[in-house]
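Annotated sample (chain length 482).
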Amino acid sequence: MAEVVRNLPLGAAVFDRDMRYLAHNSRWVTEVHGVAENRNLVGRVHYEVFPEISEEWRQIHQRCLAGATERNDQDTFQRADGGREQVRWVAAPWREDGGTIGGIVIYAENITHQVETQMRLREGEGLLRDLFEQSSLGLNLCTMDGLWLKSNPAFLDIIGYSRREADGGLTYWQLTPRKFDGEEQRQLESLRANKRYGPYEKEFIRKDGRLVPVRLNGFIVERDGVPCIWSLIEDLTQQRALEAQVEEERRNSVHASKLAMVGEMAAGIAHELNNPLTIIGGHAYALRESLAEGNTEEAAEALLAIEEATARAGKIVHGLRKFSRHGGGDSREALDPGRLVADAILFMAARIRDVGVAVERENQGTRRIWGHPIELSQVVVNLLSNACDAVAHAEDRWVHVSSSDEPEGFVTITVSDSGPGIPKEIADRVFSPFFTTKVAGEGTGLGLSISRSIVEHHGGTLTYEAEAPTTRFVLKLPAARA
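Output written by the structure step:
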């Protein structure tokens, strides 16, 4: 019997009727009673070895000696060192050959670790329930076929359905517009291959019929042995509204900058218009005289001159209106960089003539730029305007504008001038809002800042090459697809 008891996988002890140890194993001493080292207790009285045994346990012993069998699947046991353990135990009488009760046997297992683990699991489950119910992100569990099984309040708010309507009744596909079919298939392939999908953006159809933009991530989990999909859904409605507001403010600032630039060049534009108007006035007088004299040949020449001057004035006005227009939407198109530069030079013609600048233009590429014509025209005009200001007091006044094709599908427009350049200590600040190197009253300090914003909005870059031998700004933009 002693050998059997020693090899049991749980604490065990056998007592006679006086509660003297007949046999026990090491687990009984170290795990059940918490004694650091195993001791041989055979022949000793249990209550003398462990005097802290409670009256409740003493009564259990007596009931078992009277023939009862008692058990407890989770009992708090006070150890000699003051510690408390959670124990599962069974106490029963053992009988001699004649059937007389010879004593009791107690089997005990220390389940403290299991109990603490279960408590932590319950706490974790409670925390997960709270997170599920209170999360600001939508959470949804569905089958691989898209049948929704469980949804949290945030997700129900996104789609506008009640929990009763959604869980177990709706499917993912019922609320997904058909235009996303192709992307949905790609995400499903990713899910099957990688056990997760996303992040990607789409729209859900709300109960009221409105489309709501969302961003989704998800992964596969098993529920009762069946694979399901947990999805995290973020409502992008407020983000889209904020993005639209930021874009509107950006466009307004771009437009205000254009109008400010037009205001700065108003005198030059007026002078540029005055020339054809003077021609028209003079030839109108000559036309009247020729008609009075019956000289049709001179009248025809006067009419031709008036027509040419009118066309020139119309071209100036058209360019001014085009440049000053408030660009609405994002109507991009394929643009010839050479034409973009030529139009900017034409718009700046009066300023260029007044400053006495020699402008050289060179087009070395064949690609077109993909962009918004009005906004990119503003960028080139701003760079030309800055170049004219920079060379205004130089002896040799020139501006060189070139365009070329670049690797990886880009086109560059480079504007160089013979000005004194920008001091290195402030070169990294030239794109900061309200920073200007001009004297007070001659600049807003927004031109380069807004120009860089426009270029970055197009997926390009606008940089100042501080190490170049001349003042040089490089505009790099994505090329239009062939």
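Annotation: The chain has a mean pLDDT of 82.
Annotation: DSSP finds 15 helices and 17 strands in the chain.
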